[in-house]
Amino acid sequence: MTRRRPHPFWTVEGCRAAAGGRLIGAAPDPGATIEGVSIDSRTIKPGEAFLAIRGDRFDGAEYADAAIEAGARLIIGEESIGERAVPVIAVEDPISALARLAATWRDCLSGTRIVAVTGTNGKTTTANLIHAACRHSLIGSVSERSFNNHLGAPLTVLRAHETDDYLVCEIGTSGPGEIARLAGIVRPDIGVVTSIGLGHAQGLGGLEGVRVEKGALIRGLPPDGVAIIPAGEQGLLTHAEAQNIITFGSEIDADLVAGPARYEPLRREDGSEIPGIAFTLNGDKEVRLPLLGDHNARNAAAAIAAAEQLGVRQSAAIEGLASAVIPGMRLELRTIAGVRVLNDAYNANPDSMRAAIETAASIPRQGRLVLVLGDMLELGELSGPSHRGIGRLIARLESPVTIITIGPAAAAIADEARGAPMVESVTALPTTDDAAIARAVSMLVPGDTALLKASRGIGLERVADRLIAQELDPTATPNPSGA
Q1: Does residue 440 register a pLDDT over 60?
Q2: Fewer CB in 10 Å around end: N or C, the chain?
Q3: Hey, which CATH number is domain 8-92, 3.40.50.300, 3.40.1390.10, 3.20.20.450, 1.10.760.10?
C-alpha cells in the first residue's frame, strides 16, 4: 500500500513516538515512508517496518537482517537488537509497542468505521461475509486469515488506510479480559457477536464465563455504537451503553430472520458449480451463499445487518454475499481421490461440531457418509459430557453413517453412538499420530462423503493431505501402521 501523501504517523519519527521507543543506529531518511508493519520476515514487503517479537520458540531479532534484505525500512525491537543497516527503534516490549502503534493509528482513522467481530463460532466466516457484503459499495478491508489475537488485531488496524470507509476486525480470546484489551485498541463503532458456546470454556469458566468475555466487546462500544447480537442473547448487553441493538437468528422475533438453509450450488460463469446454500431473509428476500450450513445463514444475516449500518443497501449486501471468499478448512467441500471431503478441521467445540455433522448429513450424496471426528480440546470438566453429547446426536441421525474417531477424548463419541440403528460401523482410534491418520484414510473409498472435524491441535486436515498425495500418486498404498 503506497501512500502518495504520507501521513505523519508513517515516518520513522512518527513510529518512534507512537511506539514509545528511542532511535538508534542509522539515521533515518527524512523523506522515507514506512509502508506498514510486519512481524514475519518471510512475508514482509519492501518499505515496511519489521517488529521483532520474541516468542516461546523463536526470537524475532534473529530475523532482523533477513527482513532488511527483503526490504524492511525500519526495525522495532528490544534494546539488545543493536544497530542495523536501517534505523532501529529500541523498545522495552515489542508486543506492547505493537499495541501502542495500533492504538495511535486508530486515532488517525477518523473517517473509517470499524466493525469488530467476536463469538465462539463463525468469527472468521462472518468477518469475511461482512467484507463481501460491503466491498462492491465501499472501500475497506478485513482481517487476514484468523488475525484475532494480541498480535493479529493490532496488525489488522495498522493495515487499514486512513481513506478507507470501513475495517472489519476479528477479535478472539483465550482467557478472561483479552477481548476488553483488544477492543480498547480497535475501538469499534459496530460490535458483532456471532454466537455463545463452549469454546475455550476451560479458560473462561464455563458458558457464563464465555458470555461475560464476549460481552466485553459490546460493553466497549461507544454510546452511539451498534451492537449486533444473536436473538435470545440479551445478556450480552449487561452494563453496555450501546443504544442501537440489532438481533439476528432463526427466531421469528429477531430483527433479521434467517430461514432454513437449503443446499443449492452456485453456478460460475464457466458453467461449473460451487457448493452453496440459499435461504430467505425476513421471509421474502432470497440470499445465496457459496457456503454450507444453517449456521452460515445466520452468520450471513449478521453480515447484512453490519453492512446496512455501514450504509450499504440491503439488496447490494445480498448480492455481494454470493461472491464471498472464506478461508479454507471451514466446511470446505471438494472431491479428492474420489472422496468428497467436507473439511471443517480448522477448529471444533460442541456447537460447531453439531453444526458440521448436521450440515454433512444434509448434503445430497451417493455413497456413504463418514464422520471423521477428533478431540474437542479446552473443555475441561465438560469434555466427557460434550463428547458423549455428540455421540448421542449422531445416534439420532435419520440416515446411515460410518464413524471414525481420532484421539482419546473422541472415543466417547464412538462409545455413545455405537449400536444406534443408523450407525453402520464405528472405529475408535485412540491416538492422533500419523499412524491413526493413515488408518483413517485407508478406510475411505471413492464415493464416500467424509466430514473432517476436530480442534485445531489435532491436525485432522492431515486426512485431506494424505488423500491429495494419494490422488497425485494412485499407485501409493495407504500404510495404516505409519511405518
Answers
A1: yes
A2: C
A3: 3.40.1390.10
